[in-house]
Please model this.
Amino acid sequence: MRKRASGPRCGVDPSSCAKGAIMGALTKAELAEHLHTELGFSKREAKYMVETFFEEIRGCLRENEQVKLSGFGNFDLRDKRERPGRNPKTGEEIPISARRVVTFRPGQKLKAKVESFDGELQED
Model:
């Protein structure tokens, strides 16, 4: 794993990160910063690369294509039917409309990494 300048995501000393600790979100800005500092791209190039990567994923999903990232996982589109729902405040029944959702299924390598995580930040 890569080290982060801001320290571990759980906001405490890495040695005290408990397994299952809630960590903050990795942002596109942090990805771009990593490309800049670790690989030497200019900040503009790094931001462009990150934006282009995600735009490519969005475009594929928009065209009903599955996105497969080897060693990471798959993004798929799933159609959900209309179903009955309930307003929790009033108890009134309301229909939840049919919609298309994006699903993510982690690959075996990612699952193995996550399952073996012991709360310690490591370097690869």
